[in-house]
Structures are given as structure tokens and as C-alpha cells.
Amino acid sequence: MSMEDVLVRATVGDARVYAVTTTHLTQQMNEIHQCSPLAAAALGRTAAGALMLAATMKDGEAVTLRFKGNGPLGQVMADARDYTVRGFVEHPSVMLPLKNGKLDVGGGVGHEGVLIVTRCPEKGAPFNGYALLKSGEIADDLTKYLYVSEQTPSSVALGVLVDKDGSIAVSGGYFVQPLPGADEHCLEILENNVLTLPYVTELLRSGHSPEDMIRLVGKGLAVDIMDRHPVSFHCSCSREGVEHMLTGLPDKEFASMLEDPRTEVKCQYCGRTYLFSQDEMKALSRVKAESTHTAATPAETRK
Ligand SMILES: [Zn+2]
Fold it and tell me: Which of 19, 66, 231, 266 is geometrically suited to a Cys-Cys bond with 210, CB 3.0 to 4.6 A?
């Protein structure tokens, strides 16, 4: 198996096809969050989906996927930008019995709830799209979201295989996005191919590269591989960002933190811990008093 994760972009007939392997970055997140196999599968699928959606956008633009279902895993989130991704699961230690011999990701995420997709363009305000969950299995929900909210008859397949020892054996997926005005016959061929393909985990397990998956998806059509990029886990958190978040907290909350001998802020995406002494917090309180901004950045909170 290849030592790095990659994302490949191709034109197949009248469609754009993306395929990605994410085994290593999923294992990294698995270790950071000490995931159960169920949580690792949910997070790995979400991260692979986020990476492929981000690949449809321009450099510097970001996409965040937030699954808010009624299942015991709680919220599952990933955000991707420029071929990097980070994410977390609210309750990463939750495990459920297997369902038909497979990890019950739908049961973990929940069959009811909402998928929120946030696209952040380089310039201008971020915008959100919503869709009710279909099965909580992630790929189904993304496919439904793209159809309902973005009016694209796309198809998304994602898979994560977890070994007996809890490590990630394989992880990845593909995403078929018909171009506007695509030929009906071409779409039929793509649909048929997708319906008859083995599971992503089986393809990856038997050594298929992203290019191989794209050629299978595009069987009978002209396949033009456009580019291939390494993808990786990356968290963009920084001390500066945490300071900005702290000075944006409500006054009351900040005042109670000022009484502590030290304040600890842990990044929920990568687990990195930022420590602030009481003196440092006092210095921040002066910055806070002078600053006019009130909005906290939503990402890194929690002490
Ligand atoms: Zn971080």
C-alpha cells in the first residue's frame, strides 16, 4: 500500500470524478482522539467527504461538514482546505454492536438529524447549506445533501475498514459530480458502474489506487486523469488564535477564568494544549477591554 494519502481529480465523460485515499490521516485522527472503531469509521468517512468537496473549490477555500444526528456518537465534524483536513467526534469512545457484520455508523451518528455544510470562500462571508440526514451512514447523507441543497445528482461512496487491533486498515472514497448539461446516456453509464462496484473498503483492500477507482467508475467512458495531490491531517490552531478566542469570550466567562491560577485551552481538533498564566490572562484582559470585537471564533473553545 502507498505510504501517503492522495486525492486524484479526473474528467470522466460529462462528469468530474474525485477519488481519495485517507488511510494514514484517518489513523492519525484515530490516535489523537482515541476513537472506538465506530467513531474512527464515522470520522474517517466525514474527513474523506470533506476533502473531496474541498477539492471542488478554489485554493484557500474551505468546506466544513457537520453531522448533527440523534445517535450516541454526538456531533461528527470535519473541515478541509487545500488538501488538508481535521475533525473530531463528540463522543469518540462510543461503540455499538456490529450490524450485518459491519460497523453501525448510521446507528452511531443517528438516523435523524441534520447535515450542515459550510463553504468558506476566500473572500466574503461563509454560507451554510442543510439537509436532513438520510441514514447517518455519511456517504448517503452527503449524496442527498448535494441533490437537495445544491441540485447536483452526484454520488458519493466512502469507506473505512478498521483492523481488529483498532488501527485503520484502509480508508477513502470517490465522488462523482455530473457537469451541468451532462449527457443522459453518460450519466446512466456512470450510475450503472457505481451501482455494480464493490465497496470502497474492498477496492482499497485489494490494492486499488484512486486512479484505479476512477477508471472503474468511468468504465465505458473517456477517462482523463487531471491531477494528483497528497492529502494530510493538519490543524490550523495557534496560540494567537486561542488568544483571539479568549478575548472574544463574554465578560462574565472571562472574569471567572481570570481567578484561576492558570487557564488551559485544549484544541478539540488536534488535542494541542495552550497554557496561560494568571499574568498572561491579565494582559489579555487589557487587550479585551481595548478591543471592540465581540464575536468569538467558534472553533477552539473549552478549557
Ligand atoms: Zn488544533
Answer: 19
